[in-house]
């Protein structure tokens, strides 16, 4: 990272002053060590985002930021509804990829006693990997119902629990979804993929709470040292990727017609008020519902596995939050409430205490912010802060962030060796692909604890608990 282009605001906040066509400054939240590790492409992409029509306040990058498609991964930008834009690249291809964390009520000793059986049962029950398919095969009518209903649809079909809905963004169903904007190709790709993890950095992990950093909030979240949790990280699978691909192409073609001068074709966007912009929002919201339904079904399958091995166990949902979305939200701008369209690409929504969108049981302490770790390393649970609402529109980091490409990782590690090494440390990996294990090697990522510390120090979110894996199911 070219430090000469940055002005320090604090030890964990750096500003890129507006130059050229930038409408607003760029802001990067990171300590110096993380910043120096970032590719210069992050700075370049952040500057490009700052040139887009209707952007307000600043273009932001989180501590885990790295190069992405158009927007940096770890990027946040909010746009005015009247003259702003929506960008498919600002949401990403895995629409509504997110994390949900479940309580098990079990101790580490109970899980260790059946660790091998549990790992094998979860791997057998929950499909993972490239092109993985499940037991559900959606008819056109059921596809429409799922795209409209999200997790609520899954619950109504007996594939989830009604109590979960209060602990999911948007109550488990994203309003404004328009299934008619989802192409036949996207539907075809998804019809057999519900209830599947997919590949890449997606996973299901059985985790132990290793450290508590805020006892009061941890107690409100139901977190205690030694507890066993389950975290699920996945998104909208082939459907979301197809929607992103199709609309990016259309937005590139349409940009000139709306007088939008793109500094990078990958920043393709459409005016929020335009026909194409509204069509994308309708399709994207349908993909959000797909992801919410997918995580709900995987939760249902996970509960079945735990019930077989631990009769009477109940896996209650702590929270489910996405990190690849564009949401219409109310935020304060220049002291006044404004409706804005907030893009979060590889950035987690992190609403602070008192926010009306949070369930009553969590409202006093703030939203759980679920930070996925890398295979074999720690994950974190943070809490949104009031300070963070004014810093980056209630957003925080979403994970460790890659420091090495998948191709580089494949040249550096072998999947079988990694699996054996992690097993020696007490972490069981189950995956259909040795290649996938190598691509997601812990060493290919930044230090998630350093990323979390930077987010905490910047005031984006507060550290609550550190979780370490016992079992990891990978694609």
Describe the structure.
It is a single chain. This protein has 475 residues and is of the alpha+beta class. It has one domain: tRNA-splicing ligase RtcB. It is 34% helix and 25% strand. The chain contains 15 helices and 19 strands. The protein has helices at 32-37, 40-49, 108-112, 115-125, 140-156, 184-190, 215-221, 237-255, 275-309, 360-363, 386-391, 406-412, 415-424, 434-439, 448-458; strands at residues 7-10, 13-16, 26-28, 55-66, 73-79, 85-87, 98-107, 203-212, 227-234, 269-271, 317-322, 324-333, 336-345, 348-349, 368-371, 379-384, 395-396, 428-430, 461-474.
Classification by helices and strands:
alpha+beta
**What average pLDDT do the residues reach?**
96
What's the name of the CATH homologous superfamily? tRNA-splicing ligase RtcB
For this structure, what is the CATH class?
Alpha Beta
Q: How many structural domains? A: 1
Low-pLDDT segments, ≥5 res: none
Spatial shape: globular
Number of helices: 15
Alpha-carbon distance between the termini?
32 Å
* Helix percentage range: 25-40%
CATH fold-level assignment: tRNA-splicing ligase RtcB
Brief summary of the model shown:
This protein has 475 residues and is α+β, with helices and mostly antiparallel strands. 34% of the residues lie in helices and 25% in strands. It has helices spanning 32-37, 40-49, 108-112, 115-125, 140-156, 184-190, 215-221, 237-255, 275-309, 360-363, 386-391, 406-412, 415-424, 434-439, 448-458; strands at residues 7-10, 13-16, 26-28, 55-66, 73-79, 85-87, 98-107, 203-212, 227-234, 269-271, 317-322, 324-333, 336-345, 348-349, 368-371, 379-384, 395-396, 428-430, 461-474.
